[in-house]
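Hi P.,

Sorry for the delay on this. The queue was packed all week, but I finally got your sequence through. Input first:
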Amino acid sequence: MKSQKKTVFVCRNCGHESSKWFGRCPVCGEWNSAVEEERRKTKEKWVERGIGLREPRRLTDIGDAEVERVPTGVGEFDRVLGGGLVTGELVLVGGDPGIGKSTLLLQVLSRLAEAGKPCFYVSGEESEAQTRMRAKRLGALSKDLFVSCETDVTVILNQLSDLKVAAAVIDSIQTVYDPELEGTPGSVGQIRECGLKFLNFAKSNSTALFLVGHVTKEGAVAGPRVLEHMVDAVLYLEGERYQNYRVLRAAKNRFGSTNEIGVFEMVEAGLAEVANPSKVFLSDRDSAVPGSVVVSSMEGTRPLLVELQALVSRTGYSFPQRASTGYDSRRLYVMLAVLERRVGFRLGDMDVFVNVAGGIRLDEPGSDLGLVVAVASSYKDAAVKPHTAVAGEVGLGGEVRRVSQISHRIQEAKKLGFKRIIIPAGNLSDLGGAARAGSSIDIVGVDDVRGAVARALERTKSGKKT
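Then the structure:
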């Protein structure tokens, strides 16, 4: 069959194709993202073997056993996936280099293999001997765990077909290539086509596949955005490289929630699960320091207590600095404007630095009140009343808005020994008068930011519940 070569320009960010070079992608707006690729056009229509030959089925005729979940044996990993692996699921795992992606997935495959489910680890960046050395250090040696050092997608699919494994890891998708296509491994066309082949194999053979992806300097998975659209779940392993804690988040999950997180600690034997993250994140906290407050946040169904720190000092520059770690900088600007306008704080000539201890990132609006209290505490140089936790969303009018799952937040604070929690007044009705009266923790309801700051920094003891 005769073929014709055609040159196209593809956006590395979103996969948009154009016959002419472009400086800025007309779809995603990214600059200097066009790469040149060669395509072959043939009159023959390509059809993947085994795909398209099935008869349509009624949705009600599909049994629950065909979509059952398989626990991996790593509880924090199962939590993020929504309860375990779904047969035929395709998962993309991203993260910074050296963060622990390969370590975590090798541990997951080892647990599955120990449960009698054969697994396959394909490494395009390490030899079999190097992979075994790492598995030995992690205690992940199992007779049902197979390993291969291969980058040809056709060979990998043949190996998967012969082994008939329950789950497999492709580490990484940027090293795999299709010899029938033009372009080097890691190019937009190679990643897209290889990802599509893995997708077709996973669905037709009910095999769960994990694709490890490199990330860009912005933190997103490198390659065309279409790769994220075709997979069932996109997971990101986050954390500071010089800290021991790692957080696994789901940016996309067709079979579960994207609000759950998994917390791990990097130890000598790999990544260990952290059963009680709140206790770990608060272990080194000094409650007598101004600018420190404990925020009661929700990550999916899990209540999480973390320390939020703020430092306010007079600036030595023409423009004051605003810096945050673990907190949205744009949200920080909004909260500082609320403090200036509604409470009267003069922060225009002050540097403000915010940090969430432990490498955790707070994205939930319920942490707004904690940030406001922490900045106010540092500005007034007065520590927050001991054994106090805070939860609440702050509006532009300075009002404190109600938050979800308030009872879970209170129970977590009470379990860790806190004597007092400041919450929105609108959430008091959710608890009921009898529940508040019988509680061993002092529940303080506030209506606005000014009142919240006053109650958080008050030094007088009050046994009366609000």
